[in-house]
Write a structure and sequence with these properties.
By secondary structure, this protein is α+β, with helices and mostly antiparallel strands. It is 40% helix and 15% strand. It has five helices and two strands. It has helices spanning 2-8, 25-35, 51-55, 66-71, 78-86, and strands at 13-19, 42-48. Helix 2 (25-35) links the parallel strand 1 (13-19) and strand 2. The chain starts with a helix and ends in a 9-residue tail after the last helix.
């Protein structure tokens, strides 16, 4: 859903940053690369030690991490766009 929505938005490049300490980040990178092969944008997928610091002061960030949202220049709520566009079922989680 995300890659389809980004394609429809006409983006040129998509940067996906994965946390190195998270297990299976290498597998996830390969899976995203495989799924993203047919899209018309440049797909840059990286595994980094400090994703949070990399995203600080960036524009057009897509994340649900509150610390990053507090420090980035601008962000987009792509989850909402995708859920509404594809009429996806959601669940409410109360913590």
């Amino acid at each position: 859903m995300l890659l389809d929505t980004l394609r429809e938005q006409g983006v040129d490049t998509v940067h996906i940053l994965l946390d190195e300490p998270v297990s299976n980040s290498g597998r996830l990178k390969a899976l995203i690369a495989d799924v993203g092969e047919g899209y018309p944008f440049n797909l840059d997928i990286r595994i980094l030690k400090e994703v949070d610091k990399t995203l600080w002061e960036k524009e057009n960030v897509i994340t649900a991490d509150a610390i990053i949202l507090d420090h980035c220049i601008s962000w987009m709520n792509m989850l909402r766009i995708c859920v509404e566009k594809y009429n996806a079922k959601t669940i409410k989680v109360w913590i």
